[in-house]
Amino acid sequence: MKTLYTTKVTAQGGRNGHVKSENGVLDVEVRMPKALGGGNDDFANPEMLFAAGYSACFDSALNRVISLSKAKTGETTVIAQVSIGQLDNGGFGLAVELDVNIPGVSIEEAQALTDQAHQICPYSNATRGNIEVKLAVTNN
Fold first, then answer.
1. For 36, 57, 113, 140, which has the most beta carbons within 10 A of its beta carbon?
2. Which family does the record claim for this protein (predicted)?
3. Quick one: pLDDT at residue 55?
4. Which residue segment(s) compose the domain that 2 sits in?
5. CA distance 100 to 105
6. Closest CA to 99 of 128, 39, 140
7. SS3 for 81?
8. Strand 132-138 versus strand 92-101 pairing type
């Protein structure tokens, strides 16, 4: 891989701690969500941060594919739903559902553009074969 960009984020305290990027732009308290034994859902958590990164990255990949295809679309949206669960081996794993909306094209074209974006998105490439990623496509 030819590196194009690198960033660094430091975590202290794990799921009940703090994360901060080297440039200070990301500076967030993280806490265990209520569903995993935390006190409430008032803080960011690792799954939320992963969902934010994946949805933004996928939407960028999607818009690149759309631009290269010269398709005429409205503004796209990508909603990432990230789940954490226990694996059969006792460890933990993630699953992702991406809800992709590409207005202004047929559902078949929206699906084709989404499939192409899934091939070039860095998050999709990083997770392929490691976690289940479901794609749902709409065009309204």
1. 113
2. Belongs to the OsmC/Ohr family.
3. 98
4. 1-44
5. 13
6. 140
7. strand
8. parallel
